[in-house]
Amino acid sequence: MTRQTPTLSALAATLFCVCLLGLLRLSAVPMTAAASPGAAPTPTPEPTEIPDPAPAWPSDLTIIEPGYLLKSPLLHTEIPSRPRKDVFVYHVTSGDTIIGIAHNFGISPESILWANERVELNPDFLRVGQEVTIPPTTGVLHEVKAGDSIESLAKKYKVAATAITEFEYNALAPPYFLTAGQKVMVPGGEKPYQPRVVYGYSGPLPTTAKKGFGAFAWPISGVLTQGYWTGHRAIDVGAPTGTRVVAADSGFVVLVRYDNFGYGRHIMINHGNGFETLYAHLSVILVEPGQSVARGQLVGLSGNTGHSTGPHLHFEVRYLGNQNNPLAYLP
Ligand SMILES: [Zn+2]
Fold first, then answer.
1. Cα–Cα distance between 117 and 192 in angstroms, integer?
2. CA 266 to chain centre
3. Spatial CB neighbours of 260, under 8 Å, sequence gap ≥ 6
4. DSSP secondary structure letters along 83-109
5. 312: CA distance to ligand 1 center in Å?
């Protein structure tokens, strides 16, 4: 994903678009108009070999921890200096990732997931213009339900009760009555990871199905824009819309979906050896369910469909249904 230094007018236009999209979002308008100026389809030269697995990192990417990359802060929203005492509403802009936003606010990425149920439940989180609740600190921002008490929250999120009662944002005083709907920040609290629904294939095994070699090839040539972490059990590879996407290993297509949400247009390939790979946010799908594919075969073109903040391929490697780190299998 590329981003040029915005001129004032471009910035103003972007802000206008983001506000407009924020309004339109509720009526489920397709998000294609939100693509960044750099997202125009670009013809890609025919690769003769497996794509180079070691792309040169653009200068605005920095490694924040091994395997994770982050765009340098190019903030479109003024962020109050820390420590914050309040919940902040952040408007997603092109190229944003949960890790990047969390880094800018100085909190854990999981804290953002836990404060935004829709983001927590959606496979690929973000789209431009979306409002994301930023909790005041790392922990769980909990919406009180009937029957909740300070003690039950402390137990649920494994913190001391005083961590909740003494946190200024909560404005609590003895005897600490809670009201349903009230937001309570649980500093340092943790929520258990909830595995996402994994699509299964119930059809018969095609007789022509190719078995995988057990060695994966890079499915696309591009720049790693989001690594694998608890809330993102996949990798995102930024590439212009229309970039070739190839099967990472031989197998057969078990899933073809044309969704406008979540993964957008996506496919899944079963490799017949316990592995499945998933390719999401495609602009064009070039295979059908049940079709046999060879390692390196063209299966689609990358895009920005579904919940996506810029053209990229969301790539998952699943072994026996578990989403593992794709980087552990790629050359
Ligand atoms: Zn992703």
1. 14
2. 14
3. 28, 30, 305, 306
4. SP-S-EEEE--TT--HHHHHHHHTS-H
5. 8
**172 and 243 both lie in a single domain:** no
> How far, in Å, CA of 185 to CA of 107, rounded?
13
Q: Is residue 274 part of a domain?
A: yes
Q: pLDDT tens, 13-69?
A: 444 444 444 333 333 333 333 333 334 444 444 444 444 333 333 333 333 333 333
Output the CA 143–ligand 1 centroid distance in Å. 27
Q: Using a cut of 0.85, tell me whether the model's pTM lies above it.
A: no
pLDDT for 152-198, tens place per residue?
999 999 999 999 999 999 999 999 999 999 999 999 999 876 544 44
Distance 278 CA to ligand 1 centre (A): 11
Report how far ligand 1's centroid is from the alpha carbon of 314 (Å).
4
Decide: 189 and 158 in contact? Cβ < 8 Å.
yes
In a domain, 247, yes or no: yes
Task: Report CA(184)–ligand 1 centroid distance (Å).
Answer: 30
Range of the domain at 296: 223-328
Distance (Å, whole) CA 30 – CA 21: 10
Taking alpha carbons only, the member of 286, 271, 147 closest to residue 217 is 271
Can you tell me the distance from the alpha carbon of 243 to that of 47, in angstroms, rounded to the nearest whole number? 10
Residue where a domain stops, chosen among 71, 103, 134: 134
Distances (CA, A) of 210 to 114, 280, 320: 41, 22, 18
Whole-angstrom Cα distance, residue 156 to residue 148? 10
Number of domains in the chain: 3
Q: Which residue has the tokens 């920040």?
A: 185
Give the distance (Å) from ligand 1 centre to CA of residue 211. 26
In a domain, 42, yes or no: no
In a domain, 45, yes or no: no
Per-residue DSSP letter, 157: T
Report how far residue 173's alpha carbon sits from residue 187's, in angstroms, rounded to the nearest whole number: 17
Find the 124 Cα to ligand 1 centroid distance in Å. 5
